[in-house]
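We modelled the chain as a single entity of 151 amino acids. Its sequence is:
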Amino acid sequence: MLKIVKLFIFVFLVHNLCFAQSAPKFTVKVSKDRVKAGEVFEYKIRAGIESKQSPKLTLPEFKHFKVISQGIVRNYSYEKRGIIITVVLDYTLTALEEGEFNLPQAGINYKREAFKSPVQKITVSGKAPGFDRENRKKGIPQSLLEGGVSI
């Protein structure tokens, strides 16, 4: 009886080690952590996960920032241990108001669990140039309405 229990435990441990899939790994990168209101900066979120199927991705929602451009890249690489899925979210943003903010997090739902990217703080100083009253409510700088942002 003791041999059967030991064999069962051994098979269980080997199965978990061989077929275990790790939790998603996030990295977050910001081109600048201190910006002036109206200044353009980049925010990049990279998530890597080992999985046999594509996990559900939750995109960030930006409240204090205007998205100028965004991109999503998915990469699938096949290795001996399984399929590695890498997702890169690339945003070009501009700050609309002064203050210290946490940039919104991306999330991955995987194996009935929700994982979120690390929190990234950014400090915004000054007032965004070129706001008029009508578009201030919409959060659109005048410089964007007149033909783009000069960098």
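As a brief sanity check on the tokenised model: Residues 14-20 have pLDDT under 50 and may be disordered. The chain has one domain: 21-141.
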